[in-house]
């Protein structure tokens, strides 16, 4: 059985597993770099960058070219596993046995308690998996399953919520027009490591270098990151961006560096917004964020007087206690300074397939059995999942599905979640590996790696600075018995449908057909949402699936973004940007009321490395052998705690403690410490387990996230740090 769905193969193109050079693209991150894969005897043997890809033009990073390390990893799951004992104890079973038992148990639960008894968690790699995207959410919707959770609440729901308030839709997220911008402010992003997020720019370091050559790039970050080191760095305390942004915006207002008439023409709520932030002068901001008032005024002047400038922010702005406010303020800076919707400014992308037109984007409170709870585009706060499973009563969650996720390493509330997972009647995960989370599942189903599936860069389409689109067929047949989620959920839907309709009188389920999920069909349909004409050698042609298949390197849809269209993409009925909404007043009041960190406390924040990806890819020796999870601490903070380089220290918060080695470095701002997430492995990935490190999310309080956006609080956590013993044997110290 192959995980790939049947598809027509364009003339001359190679089918899955055929020997030769296949043209495809990487689906590890949002850059979607073009790749060329050599296949011999049905096996992929080499991955190189594709020079003819119009977007990446021969760029690919080591995570893309080393992908065979996980595709053919001996620890990879290649057949369904069924739990036989404690966590991590499994036996292989056939697909038929697995699907028949899963559907029978799910049908029983749904018959007894309805869809309220089922929940789902989607992890980050799902974002790059078209088959999974077209199957899982529609599957859940079809069966009325609405308790949805995702890694999105750890990285993006604050951004979605801000867009909903400002522009009337959670699915329009502005991006900086890098190719034409002369000044770029970067808040809480490290594109030289992450390769860009909510921003698809496969050659991003070139784009950034070009901006810096034309003008300036200023990076506001508590750590001197790779990006900060290459351009100008402004160190600020974690989770204080709201103060800084209000300081800059007020400096722009005070110095009248804005065009009031233009602003009144495109926004509503300007005076309320000015009133709401008025108290936070650069002097007030400076007290909280650690950036001097004069410097804040200089930034305001430089930004407002550079005609083509943009302020971009990413996950460092999405994980604080006031993440919705911060994201709104980031946009407000762009809008007030006249950078919204202009060439070289802060603009909406030109998605070749405009999913914003089809998806519901409600953000607000939704009724749950615990009362009204924040819900962002269908997603609930992560901590609610443990409550749903553990709290008795009608509507208790008994079954959980999870695709491409590892929540015990990536989300807060680790201990409680671990208990919750073990109380489930049915927990089914699909993954490439047995990880720290799915080792608690009843079934782990082997998913396909990106070389084994058809795809388009679906989420990238909205955020491309130079719009391109590409289709890839599977390069190889499925490894072992791996299956695409589209295949898995089509089969599960068919079986469940049959079981639920077998006793019609007793079921709420009244559908007449089971849904079927097929990637090519879905792509063809999606291409009709916003019909697009592209230039080809034969002249202009309508973009169809056949045309995509005939152009395996990808198609350049447009040279640049149509920035002027941004205003027309606003979804509020009056087409205005709502600069002010009640949330702003509430959050500023909450910000003022917040207790400052205690004298002894430090603020913990995270980092990502170029060579690894969240909690996975740690099983590929080539990627992980240089990785040393260590706690970075400023020399002054180390000195007051008698902490030296390599010492083992304990980092604790009210929710937990970890023991990790320390690195004393002025790269982190005074008063803070930095440690990567995604470590502390004990799954079925042996190399990853040997990397050591600790699960930093044990320190995160699941209840402490942003009130409006359901997002987790993972950056700026207050912790105590103390020395346990001196670092004599640094290698031993790597273990938790
Ligand atoms: N403290 C702290 N916590 C964080 C972060 C942080 O910066 N600091 N970052 C957060 C962010 S931004 C994110 S997105 C989350 C990530 O959180 P999650 O999405 O929950 O976890 P990942 O580490 O991405 O784990 C992905 C899993 O998917 C599997 N996988 C990979 N490819 C495929 C595939 O093609 N198919 C299937 N079926 N499975 C696949 C991997 O083997 C792995 O087990 O973590 C968040 N947690
Ligand atoms: N190599 C690699 N690439 C990745 C990933 C990976 O794990 N590895 N993960 C992918 C995922 S899931 C995502 S979401 C993207 C994320 O993409 P980015 O957001 O570009 O990635 P990060 O490196 O997490 O950058 C966040 C920055 O915010 C800073 N920061 C933390 N707290 C604060 C704060 O309070 N204020 C400010 N101003 N800055 C703060 C951190 O120091 C860090 O430098 O990257 C993606 N790409
Ligand atoms: S930058 Fe991202 S998309 Fe490009 S090769 Fe690396 S992991 Fe793959
Ligand atoms: Mo993420």
What is the makeup of the main sheet? 7 strands, mixed
Number of strands: 31
The outline comes out as: globular
| N- and C-termini, Cα separation | 41 Å
> Which class do the helix and strand fractions yield?
alpha/beta
- For this structure, the quaternary state is single chain
Spans of at least 5 consecutive residues whose pLDDT stays below 50 are 7-11, 729-736
Bound molecules: ligand MGD, iron/sulfur cluster, molybdenum atom
Rg on CA atoms, Å: 25 Å
Output the strand order for the largest sheet. Answer: 5-4-20-19-18-6-7
Mean pLDDT over the residues: 94
Describe the structure.
- The strands form 9 sheets. The chain has a 7-stranded mixed β-sheet with strand order 5-4-20-19-18-6-7.
- Strand 22 (533-536) and strand 23 form a beta hairpin.
- With 736 residues, the protein is of the alpha/beta class.
- It contains 25 helices and 31 strands.
- The radius of gyration is 25 Å and the shape is globular.
- Mean pLDDT is 94; it is low at 7-11 and 729-736.
- Helix 6 (157-167) crosses helix 15, helix 10 packs antiparallel against helix 13 (282-289) and helix 10 (241-254) runs parallel beside helix 15 (323-336).
